[in-house]
Amino acid sequence: MAQPALPTLKKLGHDDYGVAIICPLEVEVSAVRYMLNEEHARLPNKEGDSNRYICGRMSGHNVVIGFLPEGSQGVGAAATVATDMKRTFPQATLRLLVGIGGGVPSVQNDVRLGDVVVSMPSGVHGGVVQYDLGKETPTGFERKGFLEPPPTSWRTCVVDMKSAHRTKPNQISTFLEDMIKKYPGLDEYRRPTTEKDVLFLPTNKHISGETTCQKCDHSQVVERSPRARDTPKIFYGLIASGSRVEKNAEKRDQIAQDAGGALCFEMEAAGLMNDFRCIVIRGISDYADSHKNDDWLAYGAAMAAGCAKELLTYMDPVISSNSTGRNVHWTITRVTNPYFTGRADIVEEITEVVQNALQDDTGVDQCRIVVTGMGGQGKSEICLHVADRVRSSYWGVFWVDVDKVALAESGFRAIGSRLNLPGPSIDDVRQSLANVKHPWLLILDNADDKDVGYQQYFPTGCTGVIVLTSRNSKCHQSATRKSITLDGLLPHNASNLFLQAARIPRSQHEACKQDAELVATSLLKGHPLALIQAGAYVSQGHCRIAAYSSVFHRQRKRLLTFRPEQAHSRYGDVYATFEASADVLQSSSHKEAASDALQLLPVLAMLASTPLPLSLFEVAWEGAQHISREATAEDNNVGYLVTWHVSQLLPLLEADGEAWDPFRLVEAVRLLEAYSLVVVNDAGDSMSVSMHALTHAWAKDRQEPKLQRQSWLRTGCVIAVTTVEWLSARQSFWLERQTQLRPHLQALVSVGTSVMFDNEVQLMIVRILLRCGWILDLVRSDTELFTLMQQLFIWLNLDGVTATEKWLPLYDLYGQNLIDFYGQNLSDNRRSQAAVTLLEQVVTIRKQTLAEVHPDRLASQHALAVAYQDNGQVEKAITLLEQIVKIRKQKFAEDHPDQLASQHALAVAYRNNGQVEKAMTLLEQIVKIREQTLAEDHPDRLASQHSLARAYQANQQVEKAMTLQEQVVRIREQTLREDHPDRLGSEHNLATMFWDLGQPSVAIQIMQKVVRIQQRVLSEQHPDRKASEEWLRDMEDETRMCIDGRQDDSDWESYSSDDT
Fold first, then answer.
1. What residues have CB less than 8 Å from 755, skipping those under 6 apart?
2. GO molecular-function annotation terms (predicted)?
3. Tens digit of each residue's pLDDT (9 = 90 or more) over 47-64
4. pTM of full prediction above 0.85
5. Cα 720 from Cα 764, distance rounded (Å)
6. Highest mean pLDDT among 37-46, 528-537, 841-850, 1004-1013
């Protein structure tokens, strides 16, 4: 680069520079350099910084220009320059990336050579889109990640500049003229002639080997009307950033469209936006097509430099931190954790707010920032890094641990000592800081106690900056500038932290990537302290990374209480961080709420960590009310719940009053939320509560075996009493919320026999598990139900073959489960026959002990009829179902759920017996009633519509069938998991309907999906899987035969004319 002719150069300090500009190419660096109003003397770099910088003044700002080494380009090189630049010039917080780019002309945006594009948010993107970050999928390229938008200060300046340009032209061309006038040797930066701005059609490729476009087809160009002036236009929007130079116009347009309407292409911005948040300014030097040349290179660079210079005129200068009295007081004694990683964006975000506070002289309010999150998420580490970043800008940086009053007093005394206050109290220090004219930063760490008003530690007035960390989410109310809630680390950062803590050499990271991601994301959910513990466990030779997952499942408590020396946490291990919250909760002044919260916690631990609808507790309360009112004398009947079950419930579910009052439950949940032990989600009228996987593990593991059994009993009773009056309303509650509730029920019944079974209250436990079984059967958790029944029979020493009167409800449920269970070791006939044999015994005993109209007897007969159908004994099924329908018709109204259920089963039996007309007539009647009485997505309504569609199909009314079946499939896809038998059954039938209507490719596509899922969840011998596989084979074979045997294309076209 040519040196400017400056006789003497002013020399400032590193902290005097408030603007950082990065330019990738020399032609761009020179354009910015020679637009400086003055150039300053060079400064020495910080240790380890190999960059070279040009310093000067531009538009009232002290500016430092960083650039890439010769031959280096792309996101990695730019990121390296930016990292070192931030260390050497820590006060240069106004950042720009300035240079050339490839324009994307379109009808909407008439981008031309020499125009300028400024990165601004648009749609879901922040201003820069990394278009080549992602992965190839069967449906195409899936882009990943999100790049931060320019800081608010830049976006505000852009609004100001755009507004000014409505009434006056931009100054870019004037700045260029001034530069060339001052440095005549820079003539190459002049604007080329308009004739050299040729936009070829995307399909018009450059002739290979030619250095110019003279021989290119000039008949294939885009005709554009000439502009009135040669001054550049400024466009604001998205910039596409990637790792390669784009030279294909068709790809350019497609990528730009996929990226949300990008205006230009470049190669460096993606490496900067998250850790070096800046505004990107690109002068258009080509059209990112095969005709790319250097004719407009220098001019494009000059236009970008001129735009940057003009934009700086709208930005207030950063106050120099080199003024008297900065970096005088520092009371932080903690050192940063060498393993701290993955929070750079948050550190940057807070640092920006803290630095901007230096320029805020409005005097409106004090700058306060609040950071919350569960223990071990890195709140304190973030503050340490922020303090280190801004240290040279502030007169005083003070740290006070406010976990306990004594610690707070000690911390404020240390500040008073630094300020030479005699025998200072907390109020003395607060008052002193309130009157200081210098900028100060006060960090209040561990403000976790819900009962403490931490405002008592805030200095009064509007000066200074306070950063407060807490587990209590309600502390966000104290924030005036920024409020941040920490979650787990992103997968990439989590894996890196784990590998780093495990001391795995970076060269081996790729080989360990898959195992590390399993540990970091699936097991530990990105929890920083847990990741450091896990890494230390590996580094000390206790296990290999590949084995950590299996060790974790066997020895979870040991691993999560392992205390590595390098953790640098005040708690030592993950479980200790959560236990600290429980200790604070234990001593809370909210006695009833705290007691309720501590009793609710182990109940939640017995369920899944996923969101749990709090409406479950309301339904449990209603069930408890019913039991208390209708206490039965049939205490020995295993099918009944009794007052003992009510007595085991949480105290907050005590059956007082005539209406459910959620006050105590909500207070308990909110208290747990305040200490970051649960997460509460308010969605309209529905509230749910979930737990982080590690908090959930701790809540379970902290209980001794005896306490775990008590917690399981209490939780089991909560679930069981929701089934009292097991009629439509109660079943609807579980059916409508089965996606959310199913994991909790599965967690409850899979805790292990040592927790579930206690011979002291055997009958009571069987009653709980029977009710759990009813729900599992209802939501079609067939495998879990089969396992539960096997465990029950072993525990009760029952053979599962010969029914006994005492345990009759168990055999009844087991018989129904045998029909549905998809076992790998049970052939079709054996499964069906076993169910028939068992249910015939149940019905025989019911007939001997119950009246003909008793609901339990009718329910058992209904189950036997279904078993007959499954076993191919359709005539027997019809006879029995007609009898049940007749009895229920005399007892129930036509819209009673039990009556409709038996009629539905009868209609299905008619269809299976070839009596399609009778089936259709009965099903149309059922569907009509259910459509009038049930919601669109009610499972019973969908089941009858599904059966009616099949009856229509059997009657050759395929189009009518498909209309109804498509509606069923659409709703079930929204409400049921993908492997739910009902959803798979409706999708299977829809595929056959498409086939019947001559749409083979759609039919095959749907059936392939069904088979793929069934092969994952069903045994090879399961009849549903075998039927789908056979259908798919026949479809594919017939399609192949049609293709191979067609005479000409018209044959195939006629065959697939309706295909979509």
1. 705, 708, 709, 712
2. ADP binding; catalytic activity
3. 888 899 999 999 889 999
4. no
5. 11
6. 1004-1013
Neighbours of 920 (CB within 10 A): 20
Q: Does residue 141 sit in the same domain as residue 197?
A: yes
In a 3-state reduction of DSSP, which class is residue 286? strand
Tens-place pLDDT, residues 105-145:
998 999 999 999 999 999 888 899 988 775 555 555 556 65
Q: Whose structure tokens read 């206050």?
A: 421
Measure Cα distances from 630 to 400, 621, 660, 717, 727 in Å: 59, 14, 18, 17, 16
Count CB-CB contacts under 10 A for residue 484.
Answer: 18
In a domain, 567, yes or no: yes
Helix (H/G/I), strand (E/B), else coil: 610: coil
Strands 465-470, 440-445: pairing is parallel
The tally of CA atoms less than 13 A away on the side-chain side of residue 632 is: 14
Distance in angstroms (rounded) separating the CA atoms of residues 879 and 455 = 77
The Cα–Cα gap between 653 and 651 comes to: 5
> How far is 838 from 842, CA to CA, in rounded Å?
6
Task: Give the integer Cα–Cα distance in Å for 948 and 910.
Answer: 12
- 827, 866 Cβ separation under 8 angstroms: no
Residues 672, 677, 681, 687: is their CA dihedral positive or negative?
negative
Radius of gyration of the chain (CA): 36
Phi first, then psi: give them for residue 315, nearest 5 degrees. -105, 130
DSSP of 750-792, one letter per residue?
Answer: TS-HHHH--GGGHHHHHHHHHHHHHHHHHTT-HHHHHHHHHHH
291 and 404 belong to one structural domain: no
Domain total for the chain? 4
Domain that holds residue 556: 491-578
Q: How many Cα atoms are found within 13 Å in the side-chain-facing hemisphere of 139?
A: 2
3-state DSSP assignment of residue 909: helix
Q: Among 26, 101, 78, 27, which Cα is nearest to 282's?
A: 101
For the chain, the first-to-last Cα distance in angstroms comes to 63
pLDDT at 274: 78
* Domain assignment of residue 782, yes or no: yes
Could you tell me the maximum CA-CA distance found in the chain, to the nearest angstrom?
116
Gap between the Cα atoms of 468 and 475, Å rounded: 8
Question: What are the angstrom distances between the C-alpha of 627 and each of 153, 623, 765, 766?
Answer: 64, 6, 17, 17
Helix axes 591-606, 693-701, angle to 10 degrees: 100
What number of residues does the chain have? 1060
Domain containing residue 477: CATH number: 3.40.50.300
Asked if residue 586 is part of any domain, the answer here is no
- Count CB atoms within 10 A of the CB of residue 107: 5
Q: What is the 3-class SS of 953-971, one letter each residue?
A: HHCCCHHHHHHHHHHHHHH
